[in-house]
Amino acid sequence: MSDSAFSLREFTRQLPKAELHLHIEGTLEPDLIFKLAQRNHITLPYPDQASLHAAYQFTDLQSFLDLYYAGAGVLITEQDFFDMTWAYFLRAQADGIVHAEIMFDPQTHTARGVAMETVFAGLARAARQAKSELGISSYFILSFLRHLSEADAFATLEAALPLREQYADLWIAIGLDSSEKGNPPAKFEKIYARCRELEFRLVAHAGEEGPASYVRDALQLLKVERIDHGVRSQDDPALMQYLIDHAISLTVCPLSNIKLKVFDSLDEHNLKHLLDRGLNVCVNSDDPAYFGGYLLDNYMQTAQALNLQASDLRTLAANSLRSSFLPKAQQQAWLNKLENVPSND
Ligand code: ADE
Ligand code: ZN
User: Class of 3-334 per CATH?
Assistant: First the structure.
């Protein structure tokens, strides 16, 4: 690694950063999958970690999701959910993340007989320990699986609501993920209206594989504040102008987009174009155990491919803080620290 590559990485590491698009089940590394499978007496269809890892050759979103849901099948106990989440926080600390907004997919677990309480308890114990021991704050985004019905989403919300008070410091938002094509935002209009009445913050995946119109519908029908991915917005100039005018945040995940073939290569990614047009974009890792890099790797590999400068990286990190659900005063405190990180240029 050259000196300048090293110093740009160190500069970026030192920038206070928020990670806003991270599926906690997507942080399950092969070694932890094997450890939990053994602990829970589950037989995996792979003889060892290397052969599981070798299967991470995705052709599209669905080919990834099939493996991702299978991997999540090793999570049974509160300790399993804790171990997965704590491992993420340790990596987050190493990358200079100061705040994380973490998506989780309860339907993946409750459908296997895992209690909603077990999921919440394991995630929350890790999040509270991360706050006290690592100084990393976090919120949870309970995400509905869009390949399932809206009725299933309502049942999931009903199962989770009794826990709201106990986890009020963490569970503040609702998301929508899984297979995008053929599952438009309109399918979830009623559940989003209900979650809005309940005063949850709202986000949704849109415009990853699905068309720009899904981004528009997520904003207009679901009334989300933030779009996860959203890179296909570029296909619709009027939508682009709307995103600029309203400073809508897009939580972009460059390495994910390459692994899932949304773009052919990182140097063809539109992040820099979106940034230069004045969109409120930030960088995130999505499912880092599957896509070959955590947050800092996403920043650095993208910087290399798109020739991002220190000023771009600072803007991306600032966007992540400003787009977070942290109270404005806390955002500002981190932004002040960010402005004081020295760069070479
Ligand atoms: N669930 C986990 N990762 C996802 C992604 N990139 N898109 C949609 N659903 C997901
Ligand atoms: Zn995602």
Answer: alpha beta
